[in-house]
Design a protein that fits this description.
Layout (H helix, E strand, L loop, with lengths): L4 H12 L2 H4 L4 H21 L3 H17 L6 H16 L3 H18 L5 H16 L6 H16 L9 H18 L7 H9 L13
């Protein structure tokens, strides 16, 4: 984690002191304030891997968007994506794929490359969620992993693959691999990645069609 758990807990304590303020926000600003506050609270819990608490905040945020008929918003897509990943972590892969496919659909509608990193993340989470199905859905999991890498690889304003992104991909894909192939031996993951996902030079194999 970039921050310590103590740092994150401090943020949560600070945010909780603002809850009474939410009750006095003028009606014309209530939606904007509430959705920002709830998402930020969810993000704090997400960072400390408290997925139950994060999900409660995210789903309340989603409800605020739906109350205001604001369901094609890029910011909502971010919340859908985070909520979907929480569901996957909590062993609710069906609900996870529902939220994550909504997020991916919004990004596809928006169609701008500035949203590609977020679309990439949604598809990476989808790869993980499909690998958690019973039985694991290998076809959908790999399809979404490939699409995730394709979105990132096609960013016109990034010359080289971001090292942190590649590292995070490897972490998530190692879990996807373990879910898809629980009987695989040690050391096979890197060979599988080289064959199916990235080249020895570190570049991803896929491009958006």
């Amino acid at each position: 984690l970039a921050e310590t758990i103590e740092d994150i807990n401090g943020k949560i304590d600070y945010l909780e002191t603002g809850e009474p303020y939410l009750q006095s926000v003028p009606e014309d600003r209530a939606f904007a304030v509430a959705k920002s506050y709830l998402k930020l609270m969810g993000d704090c819990y997400f960072e400390k891997a408290d997925y139950d608490a994060a999900l409660r905040s995210y789903e309340t945020t989603i409800g605020k968007y739906q109350e205001n008929a604001d369901e094609t918003n890029a910011k909502l897509a971010v919340v859908y994506s985070s909520a979907g990943y929480c569901h996957a972590r909590l062993d609710n892969p069906e609900k996870a794929t529902e939220y994550l496919n909504r997020a991916a659909g919004i990004y596809e509608q928006l169609g701008e490359d500035s949203y590609y990193p977020y679309a990439s993340l949604a598809h990476m989470y989808l790869a993980y969620a499909y690998s958690k199905m019973s039985p694991p859905d290998e076809e959908q999991s790999m399809f979404n992993a490939e699409k995730s890498f394709a979105y990132y690889h096609n960013l016109s304003w990034i010359d080289n693959m971001d090292i942190e992104y590649v590292t995070n991909c490897k972490v998530v894909m190692s879990e996807v691999y373990a879910n898809l192939y629980p009987d695989a031996g040690d050391g096979e993951f890197e060979n599988w990645c080289s064959k199916n996902i990235w080249t020895k030079a570190g570049n991803f194999r896929f491009k958006i069609q």
